[in-house]
Design a protein that fits this description.
alpha/beta; binds nicotinamide-adenine-dinucleotide; 7-stranded parallel β-sheet
Length: about 280
């Protein structure tokens, strides 16, 4: 059954992965304030419990469920907990994400696997879990995938983070095209630096990916990490990002950008692509 594009939030339900911190937590608060029931799903139990606690007074119902988005069964379980608590889910935010070092000197397969499992497969697992449900209930729905400006330009270099975010942008574009006729919206969020705990992602690195490879603070990779930490500190407040996303859902917008000062970097990439396409035309 075809749904309708979501304009009204009150009384509906949002499911947010990575909801215990940063952007996901800000989503949770904004949805609750808009009158939605909210299920926060996260891998970090203590942070999740305090996030749920601190949002209690904001909306008709906020709950939390433990979930590792890298594991499809864990997401299925979390979805079931959400249906049992609140009934149908309408907005799904595939937002959980982690960052780990990359570069050319120490290409760590564990780093690549962890980042791709959470940032890319986690988004896919969310779509795969909730899409049949949203299509079946026919009450309208919207999928929000958190990518990054790192999915628009590769300024962070050769890294699993950039690869994962380019993939999330591409899959969101493809999904939007296929869901449009069904009246289900898709938004891909591409922020620059936001003041969150993403720089401390290692706190949630499961043991199966091994320890993070040692980082020499004096190396170029170490300097980049220190620089990024400063940019994150000076980053946008997550509540501003959440407000933009709610507005995009209401308007049915695909892309959300929050950092206009990064436009030049995207322009540069497109200019290089256009120039190369020009050479193809000359063949
Ligand atoms: N902070 C930024 O500057 C920035 C910029 C662009 C994009 N993003 C993206 O925003 C999203 C949210 O990150 P944030 O910046 O709020 O960071 P954050 O660390 O504050 O929050 C991320 C949340 O995801 C959870 N998480 C990590 N692994 C998980 C897993 N396997 N399963 C379930 N939950 C898991 C963490 O416990 C945490 O609560 C990420 O996808 C990130 O890549 C962040």
């Amino acid at each position: 059954m075809a749904g309708t594009v979501m304009r009204e939030f009150a009384g509906k339900t949002a499911f947010v992965t990575g909801g215990a911190s940063g952007i996901g937590f800000a989503f949770g608060r904004a949805f609750a304030e808009a009158g939605m029931k909210v299920m926060l799903a996260d891998i970090e139990p203590e942070a999740l419990a305090s996030a749920v606690e601190s949002l209690q007074s904001f909306g008709p119902g906020v709950r939390g469920v433990s979930c590792d988005v890298a594991d499809p069964a864990s997401l299925e379980h979390a979805a079931k907990a959400s249906y049992e608590a609140f009934g149908n889910v309408h907005v799904v935010c595939n937002n959980a994400g982690v960052a780990a070092g990359g570069g050319i000197d120490n290409i760590s397969l564990d780093n690549w696997r962890w980042v791709l499992d959470v940032n890319l497969m986690g988004v896919l697992h969310g779509v795969r879990t909730f899409l049949p449900h949203i299509r079946a209930h026919g009450e309208g729905g919207h999928i929000v995938n958190t990518a990054s400006m790192a999915g628009m330009e590769s300024g962070l270099g050769f890294s699993p983070y950039v690869a994962s975010k380019f993939a999330v942008v591409a899959m969101s574009e493809g999904l939007a095209m296929q869901l449009k006729p069904l009246g289900i919206g898709v938004t891909v969020l591409c922020p620059g630096y936001v003041r969150t705990r993403i720089g401390e992602s290692g706190r949630n690195r499961p043991a199966r990916y091994g320890p993070a490879p040692p980082l020499d603070a004096a190396s170029p990779a170490g300097a980049l990490v220190a620089q990024i930490a400063k940019f994150l500190q000076a980053g946008l407040d997550p509540s501003e990002v959440a407000a933009r996303v709610l507005s995009a859902i209401r308007k049915g917008e695909l892309y959300v950008f929050t950092h206009p000062e990064m436009r030049g970097e995207v322009d540069e990439r497109f200019a290089a692509i256009q120039a190369a396409m020009g050479k193809a035309a000359a063949l």
